[in-house]
C-alpha cells in the first residue's frame, strides 16, 4: 500500500532480526509499526516474543499492547516484570490500563496499582468497578473539561499544561458550575477560533449525554447515529465523569457485528476464530450440533411413527428418516467454516500464507465434530431402530455417512471461500446460498452412497 | 439517553409541528437533530417532507442530507429546486457532493455543477470520475497540506484562512516539494505545540499511503489496523491528492460487515431491509430459494433412484424424499428473517413501534415465497412422480406442506428475535442455532401433518 511497498518490513524480516539479535534488533523494531508487530506476535515463540519485548522501549511496549489481541496481551504481560508493566501503564489512558490489568492475575495487578501514583491508582480502581459492557467500562477519565466563562486561549493553555495522556482528538467539554456538561468544542474549532473568543461562543450546545451504567451498545449506536466525535458520560447527578470517543464506540459496533455473525452460525463470538486451538473450536461449535442431532432424532422418530405407510417401510426408506440429521449437521459445519473465513478475509485475519493451515484445521474441526455426532447418532439409532433385523449395522451406516458428509462439508466450507478469494469473486455471495445447496445435495449423495454400499446388499 | 429524555422531540412532535406549520415549524426544526429528522423522513408523506424542507435553512438541509439514507436523499433532491441544491452543495465537502449528485439525474446534476464556482465544479467532476469502490471514490479533496519548512503557527494561520469546508479533525499532511506526503500532524498536536516549532519536529513521519485506485475495503482495513486518524491518497506519481478520514473508513467496514451478513443468508446487501417494499424483498430472496428447490429436487430424484429398497417404496416414503426441500426452504426463510431482525435491532433500524408492521411484512414475504416455491415444486413433483397412482394429489400435498411450513418459519424467524429483544436475551444467540432446529423439527411435523391429512387415507 505504501508508495514503496518493498521497503515495508515483513514477518520474515522480524524473525531474521530476532536471530541476529543485539544491535540489529532495536533499529529494526523502531521501523516496524506496532500494529504489524501485534499481528505477527501470535506466530512468535515465547522466546522470540521475549526477545522482541527486550528490544522495545517502554513506548514501543505500550504501543504493542494497544494494538494486540487479548491473547497476545496476556503473553506479553506474563513476560514483563512488574516494574516494566508500571512503566507501560504510565503511558496509557486509564481505560486501556483497566482493560489491560484485567488480563493479569489479581496479585500482579495489585502490585502494579501499588506502584503507580496514588491518585491515578484510585482513579483506576474506580474505573475498574464499572461493568465492562457499560458506558463506564468504555469511557476514559483522562479528559479535560472547562467552565463556560473561559476563553479559547485559556483552554489551549490548559490542554498544554495537562500532564499524562489526554483523550486524543476528542475536543474539550464545557461544564456548568455543578459539573454538568453543557457544550463541546472540537480541537479543530479551538484551532480555528481567535484565542480571545469566549468558549461559550464556540461551543456546540444541546449535548446528548449517556449514563455511566448505560449499555455500551446503546451508547455506540447513539454515537454512530449522530456522528459524535465524543460523547459525555454522566453520573446519577448529571455530572460529567468520563468521555467515550467515536473510535471506541465504532470498535464496539464493529465487534458487535462480528459477534452477531458468529453467534448466528452457532459458534462462540470470539474474534480471530482461525487462531483458536482446534479443540476449543470444536467445543464452541458442539452445542449447535447437539441441538441439530436432537432435532434430527426427533424428526426421525416423528417420521417413523406418523408418516402414512410407515409400517411398510424397508431398511432403505427407514434410513431416509435420518437424512435431516446429516443435511443439518453438514449444513452447520459448512456454513460455520465459510462464515468464519468470509469474515477472516474481510478483517485481514487470514493472509494468503495462512490459508493452507486454516483449511487443514477447519477440516480437522469438522472431522472431530463428525466423529462425535456420528457416534452419538449411531448409538441412539441402534437402540431406537430395534425393529430392524440388524440395528447395529444400520446405526453404523448412518454414523459413517455422517462422518463422511460432515467432513466433506467442512472441506467445501473452507475451500469455496478460498477459491472465490483467489478468483476475485466476493466470497460472501457464493459462500452462503450456493454452498448450502452444494452441501445439501452432496450430503444426500454421500448418504445414499454410504448406505447403498453398506445396506444395499440383501435389502 | 439525555439527562432529561422527556425533552427530546419525537416523531409525533414533528408531525404535530408540521400540521401547525408556519411560525411553529422553524423553531421546532431548530431543536431537532438532523440525524433524528433523517430517521423519521421515510415515514413522512411527500407533502410533509416538502413542508419540513421549507422550514429548514440551507445548513439544516445540508445536515439532513448528510445523515439521510440514499432513498431519502433522492426524495429530498427531487423536492428541492436547483438553486436550493446549489446552496446546499456549497456547505458540503466535495466527496459528499459527488455522492449526492450521483443520486439525481444527469441533467439536474449538470445544472447544479454549472451554477457552482468554476474551480470547485472542475474538482467535483474530477472526483466523480473515480470508481465509487476505490480510495478515489472515498477520499475528500478538501484538505490542507503544508511543506515541512513552515512552523506550527503558520499552519494554524493557513487553517484559519482556508475557505469552504475543510476535512474535519483529520489533522494536516506535510508534503515534500514534489507534493509527496512525508508526514502528518494531528489537530491536537497543533494545539499542544508552541507556535514557533518547525512542523517537521512535530510531524509523525513514516506514513503509509494508499493509491487512488486501491480498493476501498483494503484501505479501510488498513486504517483500522493501524488506527490512523486519516490516510493520504496519492496518484501514480506519489503526489498527495486526497485524504480519507477514519470515520469514512469505519463506515466502509461497517457497511461491508452488514453486507456480508445479508449475502451469507442469501438476500440483497441493501441496508434497511425492513423498509424495502415486500415484493422487492421477495425478489431479492428468490434466487436462494430457487437454488434450494433445485438442490432439493435433485436430492429427491437421487434418493428415489439410488436408495436401496427404493423400488418397494410406498406413497408415504416417497413423500419423505421431498422433506429436504421443505426443511431447506423453511430454514432459509427463517434464517433470513431472523438475521435481518437481529441486525435491525443492533443498528436501531427497527424501533419498538415498528415491530408489529415488520412482523406482518416478513410473514407476508415468507408467504409469497412459499406460494412460488410451492407451486414450482408441485408442478415438478407431479410430472416426475408419474409412477404414483395420483401424482397430482401427491404434488399438491407437497406444495401445501411447503406453503404452511415456510410461512410458519417466516413467522418464527421474526417472532423469536422480537421476543428475545423484549425479554432482554441477546437475539443473535437464540436466533441462529435454536431457530434452525425449531424450524427443522416443526417443518418436519408440518410436513407429516399435511401429508397424513392429505395422503393418509387409502395409502
CATH class of the largest domain in chain A: Mainly Alpha
Structural class assignment of chain A: mainly alpha
Strand order of the largest sheet of chain A: 1-2-3
The fold-level CATH name of the largest domain in chain A is Tetracycline Repressor, domain 2
Uncertain stretches of 5 or more adjacent residues of chain A: none
Radius of gyration of chain A: 29 Å
Oligomerization status of the protein chains = homodimer
Largest interface: A-B, 117 and 117 residues
Mean pLDDT across all amino acids of chain A: 84
Order of helices and strands of chain A: HHHHHHHHHHHEHEEHHEHEEHHHHHHH
When the domains of chain A are counted, the total is: 3
CATH superfamily of the largest domain in chain A: SLC41 divalent cation transporters, integral membrane domain
Helix content of chain A: 55-70%
Number of strands of chain A: 6
- Biggest sheet character of chain A: 3 strands, mixed
**Beta-strand percentage of chain A?**
5-15%
What is the CATH-assigned architecture of the largest domain in chain A? Orthogonal Bundle
